Amino acid sequence: MRGFSIKILPHHGGLGDEAHPLIVTENDYNHPVISIIMPSYGHARFVGAAVRSVLAQTFTDWELVIVDDCSPDQSLSVLREFDDPRIRLSVNERNLGAYATEQRALEMTRHDLVAVLNSDDLWSPEKLAVQAAALQEHPAASFCFVRGWVVDGDGKVDEADDVHGDWPVGLADYRPWLVVENRILASGVVFRRAGLRFATNAHYSGDWMALLEASNRGPGIGVADRLTQWRIHGSNSFTRSPKQVAEEIAVREAIRARDWPADCRAGLGRNALNLFTLYLQTGQRARALALATQVVRTYPEKAVALRRVLLGFMPQSVLQKRLPWTDSLANLPAAGPFTIN
Question: Which of 62, 121, 207, 311 is 20–30 Å from 98 (CA)?
Fold first, then answer.
């Protein structure tokens, strides 16, 4: 393991070069020092910009814990160019995977607020300041997230791709939405550390499960401002693949296995319908049909539920034409099991 010390004054600029007037220090928020965790793997092209977006924060009372997961490229060389005492770098002895690395970084943190920044994403300079203020104002909240933009490998923003949909902002119980899917960007969240964990056997959905568990500890705060950038490119882990689908099925089964508040009923119906469809797509007809009663009973739009359930009784040749991915997902790898606390 290698640590390093750094002595660079933060640049109070944006994702570009414009100065930002908001300067927030520890004393302004009753010492809510923030630990930032950054799992690093194979993002030599992007990781320097990610770290510089931390150095540019107007909120300056943070520590940045970077854990590199045996990157095969020049990521470590890029990271070792930084010199600031708030940054600590560690290297896994062997490749652990994304969320095992994130959990290891979490265990190295020293403060009560924990932000996540993936090594290929970016922050606007006021992001941490806004979230520190929101969490100070709402002490019962277990997490705070900002909205963001999708950008490509060259940093071009895709304003047509709104990953957040119609999700609410402000202080809210996000479980009715999270039991269906996750539309919160991993790099947009600051968690309260108490109870926080990442499933070390997850590869794609660890942030979704961490948010579900955080929502069981208290409400979340959604900030309307788009203060993070999620980079989609050829070498990140967000791809639709048999491994990703297998993990999604395991997460959705973990959601089914738990009791949820009454206002999650419609969301649980949507989760059941999504799971039903995934089982059909992956050739698991018997498991799909075992969900049919729950889908019809709980999905809020009965006609939609009935039409989907009827697909389960169609011949395989017809089913393959109606649902994509059936051939390529016929033999899924193992995933999970997961438990949501």
Answer: 62
Residues in the chain, total: 341
Q: Are 336 and 253 in contact (CB under 8 A)?
A: yes
Which helix or strand (DSSP H or E) is residue 76 part of? helix 75-79
The confidence score (pLDDT) of residue 152 equals 85
- pLDDT tens-place string over residues 162-202: 888 889 999 999 999 999 999 999 999 999 999 999 999 99
Q: Is there a cis peptide before residue 337, judged by omega within 30 degrees of 0?
A: yes
Quote the CA–CA distance of 285 and 248 in Å, as a whole number. 17
DSSP state of 59: B
Exposed / middle / buried, residue 90 (Cβ in 10 Å: 0-12, 13-18, 19+): middle
Name the pairing type of β-strands 157-158 and 143-151: antiparallel
| Residue 305 parent element (H or E) | helix 302-311
Give the other-Cβ count within 10 Å of 118's Cβ: 27
Tell me the C-alpha distance between 40 and 91, whole Å: 9
Question: Is the Cβ–Cβ distance between 191 and 112 less than 8 Å?
Answer: no
Say which amino acid occupies 130.
V
Q: Is the dihedral of CA 26, 14, 115, 87 positive or negative?
A: negative
Angle 285-286-287 from CA coordinates, rounded to 5°:
90
Classify residue 98 by burial, with Cβ atoms within 10 Å: 0-12, 13-18, 19+.
buried
For 192, the enclosing helix (H) or strand (E) is strand 189-192
Instruction: List, in sequence order, the alpha helices (H) in 237-301.
Output: 242-256, 265-281, 285-290, 292-298
Neighbours of 193 (CB within 10 A): 14
